[in-house]
């Protein structure tokens, strides 16, 4: 398995800048509102012509509780009836999207995200699945990857059984922290017993994989307190685990104003929490996949990284790089071929477009050749921590040292600092550079340099 990262506090502080997370390249910041949707439709036609497999994403924006830290696109409401109107529009969009693709294109991956997808009732979840199956080819589900995000406060064994019956075989549980004081400060009180109950149900019902999210940097968190949470989570043995950085941006997200800034851990404590949590997870057998993500050695993500087939998209790390991604629902982002589109973020605008018989996308981007080359380089680095120049040269018919002369020059100080080994043949990210992979990828980002020159603060810190 891959070499574990080495934490170097001096280097972490030196390179802890703001930068993209590279769930896409180009990033969503580059999407343009004057985008011509015919580019997307043409790309969908090409996907159909070659019978490319599909990945579906469905955004369910509703939550019954507001979590103060959250920066997702969501609608907080106790009125479950609001979902009925939304589903009516969602189903109409599903029809429009499906009409662009071939009925023989098999769905290999499905993800329901939010918000809280389990805000929907069992009958509503069945209606979503029935609708998708009626217009897309789900085929045999033996090798399918169907996942859903869960709030353990709102899921019981009956719901878990229903999800399994509907074909879901992976779940993602938002845990964040098991410390009650932290939970109260972020308005997400969920006893460990609730999390364990969902986990027990998943294992009893033979779900293939359980993913858990933790967040560091929340109010009242301490190193000892968070390590206690990490120990308890490791004992639960989820297949995958994420350690996300809390970005406190109350000027952008109103609910974060309910968090007392004085209760947040200082930057040094925050770094120490991440440091110790990372080391503990690796010591206890988890593989560091990269970008906050960990997995057990027998998990598909760890195996894909070892075999060189790992990919990264808007759902994070994935093993389905060959699929075209069709995203449906408010704010969702699709990628078909070399074309990105994003749906309206506003519910009113989303519904208005559908009422007019239009796809509800309001911005997008068609990748050019330079985008494709840089995307391939960034994906290889961020997924596998290495890059073979000859492979890029052969694939794109270029001389790497000429095409990326500026990037290679910018990497030399990083090589001197021990973040990477730079040779005439390629790049190998060293253990000290793995925590700073975003910084390395930035050197190949053709847009990021322009943004830095314009002094645009568009991204979170890399650590």
Automatic annotation (TrEMBL):
<dbReference type="GO" id="GO:0005737">
    <property type="term" value="C:cytoplasm"/>
</dbReference>
<keyword id="KW-0408">Iron</keyword>
<dbReference type="InterPro" id="IPR034505">
    <property type="entry name" value="Coproporphyrinogen-III_oxidase"/>
</dbReference>
<feature type="binding site">
    <location>
        <position position="67"/>
    </location>
    <ligand>
        <name>[4Fe-4S] cluster</name>
    </ligand>
</feature>
<feature type="binding site">
    <location>
        <begin position="69"/>
        <end position="71"/>
    </location>
    <ligand>
        <name>S-adenosyl-L-methionine 2</name>
    </ligand>
</feature>
<feature type="binding site">
    <location>
        <position position="149"/>
    </location>
    <ligand>
        <name>S-adenosyl-L-methionine 1</name>
    </ligand>
</feature>
<keyword id="KW-0479">Metal-binding</keyword>
<dbReference type="InterPro" id="IPR007197">
    <property type="entry name" value="rSAM"/>
</dbReference>
<keyword id="KW-0963">Cytoplasm</keyword>
<feature type="binding site">
    <location>
        <position position="70"/>
    </location>
    <ligand>
        <name>[4Fe-4S] cluster</name>
    </ligand>
</feature>
<comment type="similarity">
    <text>Belongs to the anaerobic coproporphyrinogen-III oxidase family.</text>
</comment>
<dbReference type="GO" id="GO:0006782">
    <property type="term" value="P:protoporphyrinogen IX biosynthetic process"/>
</dbReference>
<dbReference type="Pfam" id="PF04055">
    <property type="entry name" value="Radical_SAM"/>
</dbReference>
<dbReference type="InterPro" id="IPR010723">
    <property type="entry name" value="HemN_C"/>
</dbReference>
<dbReference type="GO" id="GO:0046872">
    <property type="term" value="F:metal ion binding"/>
</dbReference>
<feature type="binding site">
    <location>
        <begin position="115"/>
        <end position="116"/>
    </location>
    <ligand>
        <name>S-adenosyl-L-methionine 2</name>
    </ligand>
</feature>
<comment type="subunit">
    <text>Monomer.</text>
</comment>
<feature type="binding site">
    <location>
        <position position="188"/>
    </location>
    <ligand>
        <name>S-adenosyl-L-methionine 2</name>
    </ligand>
</feature>
<feature type="binding site">
    <location>
        <position position="114"/>
    </location>
    <ligand>
        <name>S-adenosyl-L-methionine 1</name>
    </ligand>
</feature>
<feature type="binding site">
    <location>
        <position position="333"/>
    </location>
    <ligand>
        <name>S-adenosyl-L-methionine 1</name>
    </ligand>
</feature>
<dbReference type="GO" id="GO:0051989">
    <property type="term" value="F:coproporphyrinogen dehydrogenase activity"/>
</dbReference>
<keyword id="KW-0627">Porphyrin biosynthesis</keyword>
<dbReference type="InterPro" id="IPR004558">
    <property type="entry name" value="Coprogen_oxidase_HemN"/>
</dbReference>
<feature type="binding site">
    <location>
        <position position="176"/>
    </location>
    <ligand>
        <name>S-adenosyl-L-methionine 2</name>
    </ligand>
</feature>
<comment type="function">
    <text>Involved in the heme biosynthesis. Catalyzes the anaerobic oxidative decarboxylation of propionate groups of rings A and B of coproporphyrinogen III to yield the vinyl groups in protoporphyrinogen IX.</text>
</comment>
<dbReference type="GO" id="GO:0004109">
    <property type="term" value="F:coproporphyrinogen oxidase activity"/>
</dbReference>
<feature type="binding site">
    <location>
        <position position="57"/>
    </location>
    <ligand>
        <name>S-adenosyl-L-methionine 1</name>
    </ligand>
</feature>
<dbReference type="InterPro" id="IPR006638">
    <property type="entry name" value="Elp3/MiaA/NifB-like_rSAM"/>
</dbReference>
<keyword id="KW-0004">4Fe-4S</keyword>
<feature type="binding site">
    <location>
        <position position="213"/>
    </location>
    <ligand>
        <name>S-adenosyl-L-methionine 2</name>
    </ligand>
</feature>
<comment type="pathway">
    <text>Porphyrin-containing compound metabolism; protoporphyrin-IX biosynthesis; protoporphyrinogen-IX from coproporphyrinogen-III (AdoMet route): step 1/1.</text>
</comment>
<dbReference type="Pfam" id="PF06969">
    <property type="entry name" value="HemN_C"/>
</dbReference>
<feature type="domain" description="Radical SAM core">
    <location>
        <begin position="48"/>
        <end position="284"/>
    </location>
</feature>
<feature type="binding site">
    <location>
        <position position="63"/>
    </location>
    <ligand>
        <name>[4Fe-4S] cluster</name>
    </ligand>
</feature>
<dbReference type="GO" id="GO:0051539">
    <property type="term" value="F:4 iron, 4 sulfur cluster binding"/>
</dbReference>
<protein>
    <recommendedName>
        <fullName>Coproporphyrinogen-III oxidase</fullName>
        <ecNumber>1.3.98.3</ecNumber>
    </recommendedName>
</protein>
<keyword id="KW-0560">Oxidoreductase</keyword>
<dbReference type="InterPro" id="IPR023404">
    <property type="entry name" value="rSAM_horseshoe"/>
</dbReference>
<keyword id="KW-0411">Iron-sulfur</keyword>
<dbReference type="InterPro" id="IPR058240">
    <property type="entry name" value="rSAM_sf"/>
</dbReference>
<keyword id="KW-0949">S-adenosyl-L-methionine</keyword>
<feature type="binding site">
    <location>
        <position position="247"/>
    </location>
    <ligand>
        <name>S-adenosyl-L-methionine 2</name>
    </ligand>
</feature>
